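In response to the reviewer comment on reproducibility (Comment 2.3), we provide here a single inverse folding case reported in full, input and output, so that an independent group could reproduce the run without further information from us. The structure tokens appear first.
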């Protein structure tokens, strides 16, 4: 690592001020992406702004027909949350599949969403559920938030405070994991909310997470895996590497999408029950 100055603010305002004051400052949440890149000298920020001492950035709370999750809430907390498992089990399942136990006990929702790794799991959930990213400045709809590989709508001094997930009538998430990294080679999140159906794909796109309108239209006619039989997506624009070609990933999207719909169909609809967790 190169030398850097470490800051530990106690409020979101202090953290935002530090970002505004130091152009080369980086936020530190779980650190599972930033610290390894610094150790390999792929990144050398002169200032690190640690968010761990800021109160109110973690926790899970059910509010009406939505679940609000603080930015510093760890993956394991989402996976084990009774509120999430009762009302949005597909999201709990997604969190349980992230990395390994060490990653899940340190990595955070906000860190993953801010980083927007093209193979990360959470972006698929945000896009499929029509989630809202709440920052210290504004609210950003998921459709407007993701701008490309590792790119988001966040401004330089903008900090994610929480993410609000609407509860779906039916939802399912399935991913085909890289056996070494456990990142998604292809992950598909399917969500049915009233008359709206969304299908979001992570891991496959060269430009990050994306929706599949053709799959959504087919599922509107009948929400069943059989509705996707014979449907494919073009390989153009998909990732191609030593783990799988673009054509392979295109095929996987169809296979995994059907499994995600099957998981959603098999999950019983749940009744909403108010129960805040972790002081959110």
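Designed residues, in position order:
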């Amino acid at each position: 690592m190169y030398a850097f100055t470490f800051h530990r603010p106690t409020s979101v305002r202090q953290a935002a001020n530090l970002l505004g004051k130091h152009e080369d400052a980086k936020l530190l949440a779980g650190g599972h992406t930033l610290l390894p890149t610094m150790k390999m000298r792929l990144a050398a920020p002169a200032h690190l702004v640690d968010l761990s001492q800021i109160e109110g950035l973690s926790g899970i709370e059910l509010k009406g027909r939505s679940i609000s999750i603080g930015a510093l809430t760890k993956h394991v907390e989402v996976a084990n949350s009774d509120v999430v498992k009762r009302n949005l089990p597909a999201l709990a399942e997604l969190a349980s599949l992230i990395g390994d136990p060490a990653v899940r006990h340190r990595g955070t929702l906000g860190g993953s969403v801010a980083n927007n790794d093209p193979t990360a799991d959470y972006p698929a959930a945000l896009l499929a559920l029509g989630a809202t990213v709440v920052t210290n400045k504004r609210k950003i709809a998921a459709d407007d938030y993701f701008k490309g590989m590792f790119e988001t709508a966040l401004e330089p001094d903008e900090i994610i405070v929480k993410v609000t997930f609407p509860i779906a009538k039916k939802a399912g998430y399935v991913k085909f994991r890289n056996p070494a990294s456990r990142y998604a080679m292809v992950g598909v999140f399917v969500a049915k909310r009233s008359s709206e159906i969304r299908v979001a794909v992570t891991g496959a796109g060269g430009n990050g997470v994306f929706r599949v309108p053709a799959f959504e239209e087919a599922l509107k006619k009948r929400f069943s895996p059989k509705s996707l039989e014979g449907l494919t997506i073009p390989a153009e624009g998909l990732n191609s590497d030593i783990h799988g070609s673009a054509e392979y990933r295109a095929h996987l999207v169809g296979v995994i999408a059907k499994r995600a719909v099957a998981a959603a169909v098999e999950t019983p609809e749940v009744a909403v029950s108010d129960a805040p967790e972790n002081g959110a």
